[in-house]
Amino acid sequence: MKIKVITSNEGKMREYARSLGALGYEVCKGKVPYDEIQADTLEEVVSHGLKVLSETEDSFIIDDSGLFIDRFDGFPGVYSAYALRTLGNEGLLKLMEGVDDRRASFVCCIGCKLPGRDAFTVSAACEGHILEERRGSLGFGFDPIFTTDGERSFAELDIDEKNRISHRGLAVAALVDRLRSEEGR
User: Which residues contact 134 (CB under 8 A, 6 or more apart)?
Assistant: First the structure.
């Protein structure tokens, strides 16, 4: 079965293709424009996208992720893409100067719609903290300033290691488990 991943991110495409290919899904990239709402939770954003895209698409995956910093009551959270574009890693590190509580989490919510089935979402989180400086050249987004082990940033991990512990890797694993259970595998 062919399933479209609505993204322009090649890294996401590779991860979905590797994980879903093992289940017999043919993954293709789709760039389908739709209005993404501003909401309080990733689940609301993804649920809205599922509803809108279900009107024109019959088999697709969408996702939304965010960096939630405890000290800032979850900011940037659902506004992570905007914060990355406007503040960047350096701006966020500047906001964190002198802050002792550096706990944070990455969260990913994935929405899936397949023909003849109800749409559903799965989510996963990865706990860690914000480093005091950028580290590494791998990954993207806030990866250079986020760590789970206090030693290496996500941007210092190879893709396979990152996918085993990251929010998106865990959410994709939850998606695969859900699809397997629905198909009786």
Answer: 89, 90, 93, 144, 145, 153, 155
Residue 40 is among the residues annotated as catalytic for this protein = no
Where does the pLDDT of residue 185 fall: very low under 50, low under 70, confident under 90, or very high at 90 and above? Answer: low
Residue 21 has pLDDT above 90, yes or no: no
Looking at per-residue confidence, does 91 or 20 come out higher? Answer: 91
**Domain map (residue ranges) of the chain:** 2-183
Span 164-177, mean pLDDT? Answer: 93
* Block residue for tokens 């050249």: 137
Catalytic residue among 58, 64, 158, 160: 64
Q: How far apart are the first and last CA of the chain?
A: 15
How far is the CA of 51 from the CAs of 15, 45, 62, 112, 168, in angstroms?
Answer: 24, 10, 11, 11, 22
Count other C-beta atoms under 10 Å from residue 99's C-beta. 13
| Nearest residue to 108 via CA among 30, 15, 20, 18 | 15
Quick one: fold of 2-183?
Answer: Maf protein (3.90.950)
